[in-house]
Amino acid sequence: MRERKVAPDSFSYSSAIAACEKGVKPHEALQLFSEMKQKGIPIHEQTYGAVIAACEKGILWQQAIELFAEMPQAKITPNLVCYSSAVSACEKGRQWERALSLLAEMRNREAGGGQKIVPDLIIFNSAISACEKCQEWENALVLLADMQKQSLQEDLFTFGAIVSAMAAGKKWQLALAQLARMRECGLPPNAFSCNAAITACEKCGEWQQALALVAGMRHFGPEPGLISYNAALSACQRVGAWEWAVVLMEDLKAGALHPSLQSFSCGIKACAAGGRWQECWAMLQQMHASAVDPDNSVYNVVAGACEVGEQRQHVLTLLAEALQDGLASCVYIRAQS
């Protein structure tokens, strides 16, 4: 267009910015938007919507919020797209208070033509996710109630964020209640929701509930993954349920999953808490066989379990291994005592 010496107008700029949004090119969108301002080309709410969305998708959440905030000064009324992108930007920036403020503002504002702007499912999901990321579980529940009053049907994203918010708030009973609600709505819980519920139980010391959730995943789906097993192992570690930690480690390997450092660490610590030096030693050997390098904490816990079990030779063996790995300080103290 410029090569043919035809001056770009509002429509052509807006189309170009919309293309940048679809291609997730926020910097290019901002450059075009800046040119429009410099040249005095009329800017409409659709243009603002596109450039705000481009910034939001490109993780430039601060710029997205700033652009939205300047709309009143430009005497342009935000439309649903502008609000949706702005709330999503707040979610990415963990600005939960700003997200709730935008929701309240929507309810008191009319779009062009005098029609009310009604928050949709996407906007509610973004606001709930913002609360979840900031551990504002009570506000997440308030938003969920508002959704239901508006007759909006929750989706997998809604439930995932809500259950995760309950986990962050250590509200395991509410997390399980939301899983049950998912089934009532005809939505089989996905891995994210199940893992969040297991984490909620783990944080609250409800290890038996965590184990029941993993068992439920094995029988009804989705198949538990490494995150599921690690959360359950951590729950067992908290209470020293070493027998179940051993079972989980066996199930994990039987499911063709590869235990991580966290898996072994939780299993070993659970066995140590139960005074089971043999199991600690066996898991350490499994770590070596799985090419998972023990850290200082693992060596120290195994050494402590062997010390309690009066297995001095094992402590000396651990010292040699730890020296080779450059992690010998704690084991050395035990070996010398």
UniProtKB/TrEMBL annotation:
Superkingdom in the source lineage: Eukaryota
Ranges for domain PROP1-like PPR: 125-302
Entry's transmembrane regions: none
The entry's keywords: Repeat
PPR repeats: 9-43, 44-78, 79-109, 120-154, 155-189, 190-224, 260-294
One Pfam match: PPR_2
Name of the protein in question: PROP1-like PPR domain-containing protein
Source organism of the structure: Polarella glacialis (Dinoflagellate)
